Amino acid sequence: MSARLDRIGLGRFARAGERLARAVTIASVSFGRSLLWLLAAIIVGCGIWMLLPLSKGNSAEPARPELAAVETAPAGDTSAVASPASEAQVPVAAELGRLRISSQTWRRGGLGSKVLVTFTLRNDNDYAVKDIEVVCAFTRRDGSHLTDRSRVLVDPVSMKSRKTFVHIPIGFVNVNADQAKCSLVAARRA
User: Where are the transmembrane segments (predicted)?
Assistant: First the structure.
């Protein structure tokens, strides 16, 4: 009976099975090497990314106090006369005590990694304001601080009025962020 099976050609099937086993072994070794190269590339890429400096818009930088610290002289005060050249260099700050956020909400956008804030800004000053800097602090569910993000709004807000800013992108946020509290840092007279 074995002679009859050899005549059918089972020997060819056995040789094909051996070739297939060798090909699978070579492919698995090749796949393992490719996986090691991929892992090495990921490690090197992460190392380079960690060495890059933070971008200005997405870093947790402290608020810029130089804009809020600039004060304007009263209209009748002649002791502080400024030259036109120095007026161009020093921004005229607005009074932040009469500028406030009356309501605010936030939601995630961009696949959950970006923050979109909606808030109403109320200006009780006797002048319009522009270049309003807003800083939003993000916290976890337990109240621990995660990060701060800031944004400068160039749209002016008229005097004695309010303006609603809808879905303003503030920046990237940690996925663990649960609460946000936005506050005003600086503004200029329009």
Answer: 35-54
